[in-house]
């Protein structure tokens, strides 16, 4: 009988699995308190949501495209790590509830992702808080690499970049959404292009599920333990993320929404530290000074 891994390995000799070599989440994070093992076709919330494509993964969660069998529509299912979900103060949940309550009073709330449903899911690694959101296109970070046209480049800007009109619109919507958060005492804590999403063009629900299915080429071979034992905490295979960038609205009607509140906090109750990438940290974070909502700016 295999022993449950209680901590993330810090050295290669502690790792359980053979090298996979695919751009996926680290399989060692499938452990008690970690990610929930998901297989395509799995259902959640008493069979209401069925996953059929992976949209992404992050520090605390994996995100999947699913079918809502009750409302017959597509949704994005975010499954938090068990350890993150079981924290005594589930800040993300309380913030989500606050945003939903205040949204009707703020037109600017349309630029912030709102949870459509939330529930807990029991799995081999613990209880996982799950959030349901509307499906979105790619992030602002990655969409620039997938633009259907090639913006002119200059000597000063040899890498892909957004045309000026699009960059201005992205910034306007991002700051409008941020204003909504700050007026309600909420600091995002990890405000960056990777957490800004393009809205979907038209009605995604009109697209047949067969066209949205996960590409089988982006499903890894079965993952294997180095000791040959069967692992109870990890999935049988991993799934490479496939964004919905081809369905993003890139017209003059494009809309940007702020996502991922895993690092968010109440301005009156800041944490000891934040998850902001070092290159994007505000000076007060770098010098370990007191901080507030200004770190988002």
Précis, in short:
Helices cover 16% and strands 18% of the residues. The chain is an alpha+beta fold and 297 residues long.
Description:
- The model has no long low-confidence stretch (mean pLDDT 90).
- The chain has helices spanning 82-85, 91-102, 140-143, 164-183, 209-212, 283-286, and strands spanning 43-44, 49-57, 61-68, 73-80, 117-123, 126-133, 186-187, 196-198, 256-258, 265-266.
- The protein is an alpha+beta fold and 297 residues long.
- A hairpin with a 4-residue loop joins strand 1 (43-44) and strand 2 (49-57).
- The strands form three sheets. It has a six-stranded antiparallel β-sheet with strand order 1-2-3-4-6-5. It has a two-stranded antiparallel ribbon with strand order 7-10. A two-stranded antiparallel sheet has the order 8-9.
- The chain has a single domain (12-296), classed as Transferase(Phosphotransferase), domain 1 (Orthogonal Bundle), CATH 1.10.510.10.
- It has six helices and ten strands, in the order ββββααββααββαββα.
Write down the overall mean pLDDT: 90
Would you tell me the structural class of the helices and strands? alpha+beta
Give the SSE string: EEEEHHEEHHEEHEEH
Number of helices: 6
Give the radius of gyration: 20 Å
Write the layout of secondary structure elements.
Blueprint: E1 43-44, E2 49-57, E3 61-68, E4 73-80, H1 82-85, H2 91-102, E5 117-123, E6 126-133, H3 140-143, H4 164-183, E7 186-187, E8 196-198, H5 209-212, E9 256-258, E10 265-266, H6 283-286
Antiparallel strand pairs: 1-2, 2-3, 3-4, 4-6, 5-6, 7-10, 8-9
